[in-house]
Design goal:
This protein is of the alpha/beta class. It contains 8 helices and 8 strands; from the N terminus they run βαβαβααβααββββαα. α4 crosses α5 and α7 runs antiparallel to α8.
């Protein structure tokens, strides 16, 4: 699929625009309407069973969007709000099983980093699960080693905060034993990211600044990782400048 840009990005500096779409991703849309843009992307992706995952706090903001999906006959199931902060195992496995039960062919994730990561893992499980097989952490992690890796259902990420989990092919979860775990594969890179500022309105300052600092942590980790390529380092350093600008802006006008 050819790379796409939102009309908003035509006004962005060329060197910035070139960095906005990570390898393996189809499009990044900035400053656009979630509903209008997501519906256009759904049409281009040619999917018909959309599974929506969201933070509980984001659910009221997308009620109209859910109604639109249902009216078009492409909503696979009621909105799933089982993912807790950190991506706890129970909620993740429930979402995986629900997505399989409705044969979802697209995942839309609305909210913070835990929901974005969970969406990647749900897609991974959809690619490997048998029809009556219940999801497990071991099963999800085994799925990342499929060879060859089958195509994963597409993911449309709609973040409401700034940790930037939506721009990676790595996904974290927390097991019942409170152990941080996860999976990673290049195929887990989300297909589309939609940044709609309406999703962040009313968010407490501690969430805004806290998740932005997580973005700093992710960027520094990318720069320092022993397997980082020059392309990754350039993107991470550019991302740090964006986060710095954003933090200074939020400090002046939260």
């Amino acid at each position: 699929m050819a790379m796409r840009r939102s009309s908003h990005l035509s006004t962005v500096q060329p060197e910035v625009e070139a960095l906005l779409v990570p390898p393996g991703m189809d499009a990044v849309h900035v400053g656009v309407s979630l509903e209008e843009t997501a519906l256009n992307e759904i049409e281009q992706l040619q999917v018909s069973k959309v599974f929506v995952m969201a933070n509980k706090s984001s659910k009221p903001l997308v009620e109209d969007f859910m109604t639109t999906l249902e009216s078009k006959g492409i909503l696979a199931a009621p909105i799933n709000c089982d993912i807790s902060m950190g991506g706890a195992e129970d909620g993740l496995l429930k979402a995986c099983d629900e997505a399989v039960s409705v044969s979802a062919d697209c995942v839309i994730t609305i909210g913070g980093g835990a929901v974005q990561d969970a969406g990647k893992l749900v897609r991974l499980w959809l690619s490997a699960a048998q029809s009556d097989e219940k999801a497990t952490v071991k099963g999800i992690q085994a799925a990342q080693n499929q060879d060859p890796m089958p195509p994963l259902p597409p993911q449309i990420c709609c973040p409401n905060s700034f940790a930037m989990a939506e721009l990676t092919h790595v996904a974290g979860l927390v097991t019942k034993d409170n152990v941080k775990s996860g999976a990673a594969h290049k195929s887990m890179m989300p297909n589309v990211v939609i940044y709609d500022s309406n999703l962040s309105r009313g968010m407490p300052d501690w969430v805004k600044f806290g998740t932005a600092l997580r973005g700093v942590e992710h960027a520094v980790g990318a720069v320092c990782h022993p397997d980082a390529t020059e392309n990754i380092r350039v993107r991470a350093l550019k991302g740090l400048t964006f986060v710095n600008t954003g933090l200074l802006g939020m400090a002046k006008d939260p």
